[in-house]
Design goal:
Elements: E1 2-6, H1 13-22, E2 26-30, H2 41-46, E3 54-57, E4 61-64, H3 66-76, H4 91-113, H5 122-150, H6 161-172, H7 184-195, H8 197-206
Parallel strand pairs: 1-2
Antiparallel strand pairs: 1-3, 3-4
Helix pairs in contact: 1-3, 1-6, 1-8, 4-5, 4-6, 6-7
Bound molecules: glutathione.
Length: about 210
């Protein structure tokens, strides 16, 4: 049975929704990052990077990185349709979007949520947040333009795990001046994710809501 270490609304959202899509039994182990539980010695043995999510599989093997966990789970459980097979025409854009979202958009979100990890001093941190917010607005603007031209989903007509990832990151912008879902096509994508029972169950289980 899988175990997923998670914290409400964190990068676990996507792998958590995918576990719900797959429908296998799994155990959730809460690590409340708002209380600093990711730095508890016991959890550091699980993930020395002090981050969530971490997946436990095959009776004790450990894996972290939300995008990698997502792909790993999908490939282990064929039939979800959440990733195009190698050779499929959607494979290249799927990999592109998943990597872009986790490398670039997610990192920018981390600058906004945790400017103290990047620079000292309140003024500097406020400046990092302002700059990051403008960068994220531009990124989601470009995503919105792409969806307008080639959507309704990131790879066209099929909803994949990269769309879940985009919906998750859109939620992370909810406290910004111009949240991602104020872009109409991004909003439609978020609504499409929320309309999937697995994503809706994940939101409920994590005790979180998503503006859209
Ligand atoms: N690249 C990692 C990042 C995970 C990550 O940053 N998780 C955040 C929550 S969204 C976390 O654990 N933060 C705790 C901390 O920064 O101390 C992934 O995608 O899994």
């Amino acid at each position: 049975m899988y175990k997923l270490y998670w914290s409400p609304g964190s990068a676990n959202m996507t792998p958590h929704a995918i576990l719900e899509e797959i429908g296998v039994p799994y155990e959730l182990i809460k690590i409340d990052t708002s209380k600093g539980e990711q730095r508890n010695p016991d959890y550091l043995k699980v993930n020395p990077h002090a981050r969530v999510p971490t997946l436990v599989y095959d009776g004790g093997k450990l894996m972290y990185e939300a995008a990698a966990i997502s792909l790993f789970l999908i490939e282990r459980h064929p039939g979800t349709g959440l990733a195009p097979e190698p050779g499929h025409a959607d494979r290249a854009p799927f990999l592109q979007w998943l990597a872009y979202l986790t490398n670039t958009v997610q990192e920018a979100c981390m600058h906004w949520w945790h400017p103290e990890n990047f620079v000292a001093g309140e003024d500097h941190q406020a400046a990092v947040k302002r700059t990051t917010e403008a960068r994220l607005a531009k990124m989601f603007g470009l995503i919105d333009a792409h969806l307008a031209q080639s959507g309704p989903y990131l790879c066209g007509n099929t909803f994949y795990a990269c769309d879940y990832y985009c919906a998750m990151l859109a939620r992370w912008t909810r406290a910004m001046t111009a949240p991602a879902h104020t872009h109409p096509r991004v909003r439609d994508l978020v609504r499409a994710a929320m309309a999937r029972p697995a994503y809706a169950r994940m939101l409920e289980m994590e005790g979180i809501a998503q503006p859209s």
